[in-house]
Amino acid sequence: KILKQQDKIYISDAAMRNAVLMNEDIELDPDELGLIAETVVYKHLRSYYYNSEAQVGYFRESSRGKEIDIIIKKPKAEIMIEVKYRENAGIKENDAIVTMAQPSIPNLVITKKDIDFGFYTYGDKTIYKIPAYAFLYLLGLYESKELELE
């Protein structure tokens, strides 16, 4: 497994990104919204873990085309996060988030819809789905109380 930190570019200001790309209709393009949602989640996680031992990056295995959007590597655990900000945020057994998951570590799929909430088991692995707005709210709540995510 490789934790990459530099190769994936996130433009942290969505308004600046859209101005540079001259893209005014992002709310009509699901792919663009997905990229912005991934950037927002990544940016908030980087900020959250700024003063900790955790490394925040991503994983990409080009030989098999597998990618994990965000990986938080902590001394005792590795949390994997996929951002699937679209209408159908289904998870398949051969998705990287499932095949690479460690049985005792919570892994997250950040989604768009309210109904995409709950946990899904794949053998001895568990994937938690949570809407982006709820995840970001809870992350902010943890940050305000100076708690650390497990």
Could you walk me through the main structural features you see in this protein, from its secondary elements to its overall organization?
This protein starts with 13 loop residues before the first helix and ends in a 6-residue tail after the last helix. The model has no long low-confidence stretch (mean pLDDT 82). Helices cover 29% and strands 26% of the residues. The protein is built from four helices and six strands. It has a six-stranded mixed beta sheet. Helix 2 (30-48) packs parallel to helix 4 (132-144). The longest helix is centred in the N-terminal third of the chain and has 19 residues, at 30-48. A hairpin with a 4-residue loop joins strand 2 (66-73) and strand 3 (78-84). The chain has 150 residues and is α/β, with parallel strands linked by helices.
Topology of this structure?
Layout: H1 14-21, H2 30-48, E1 55-61, E2 66-73, E3 78-84, H3 96-99, E4 107-111, E5 118-122, E6 125-131, H4 132-144
Parallel strand pairs: 3-4, 4-6
Antiparallel strand pairs: 1-2, 2-3, 5-6
Strand content: 25-35%
Please give the share of residues in helix.
25-40%
Q: Give the helix/strand class.
A: alpha/beta
Main beta sheet, described? 6 strands, mixed
The low-pLDDT segments are none
Computed over alpha carbons, the radius of gyration is: 15 Å
Shape descriptor reads: globular
Overall pLDDT level: 82
Helix count, DSSP H or I runs of 4 or more residues: 4
Order of helices and strands, N to C?
Answer: HHEEEHEEEH
How many β-strand stretches?
Answer: 6
Strand order of the largest sheet: 1-2-3-4-6-5
End-to-end separation: 21 Å
